[in-house]
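$ fold --in a.seq
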Amino acid sequence: MRTYKLHLIRHGMTEGNLSGQYIGLTDLPITTNGIIELKKLKSDGIYPKCDMVFSSPLVRATETAGIIYPEKEILINHNFKEIDFGDFEGKTPLELKDNPDYAKWVEGDLPSAPNGESTLEFATRLCTGINEVVRRMMSEEVYSAAIVMHGGAIMTLLSVAALPRMKMAEGACGNGR
């Protein structure tokens, strides 16, 4: 029996991460300090060797993949983009604290941010992406791959597809981790 390993890696630090903004589809680059941190983590040997590297198409993910795996072709999968935060995109929780829709969304009483993507749509899209990766790995007889994506994507995937089941917050990971 073959084992397929998928290593989920969060992109490097962005200005949006530093300011605490909801950054979903906004295409931000990694900060200079984020690049330095990724290079240090790489030199420390924390990143697994793998045969294939997949990435969200957003620049923060593709930059991260290129820094960590410069010798590998980066295979883009659009299903690994971060969630669309709709009207909350680019805003911080402090900026949204008086917004009644934000309070309902945070409490889970709204399925999505206004004009955004629902958690169910997001999770379905991510699972479709994982299915595509595994099918490609199987067809090409590849047994280890990295996927560079976003923090929310990793937490969502682990909460819906990992065994044992994880709560959303248990899947949280730092930038470049």
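$ fold --in b.seq
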Amino acid sequence: SRGLMFRETLGEDEGMIFAWEADHSGGFWMRNTLVPLSIAFVLADGTILHIEDMEPLTDTPHNPPGPYRYAIEVNQGWYADNGIEVGDTVDVSEVVSS
């Protein structure tokens, strides 16, 4: 429930994954989050559905165009810097949902 809120830094190749047991449709915001982030919404099979940049300390809702199973937050620009785009796949075989 706390996610990356209140962190002042995030390592270059660090992030946080959110996982649900079933498809999820809720959005994310950046309340109390100090680090600019990019978020990837990922389908159950690991396909990236949507990627969006999020600005710190905002309540702007960030919602993907459809249900998803995972959300992965990283430093803003990390996906673009690493050539990762919508339609690419993520290995989610070892992710455990909460």
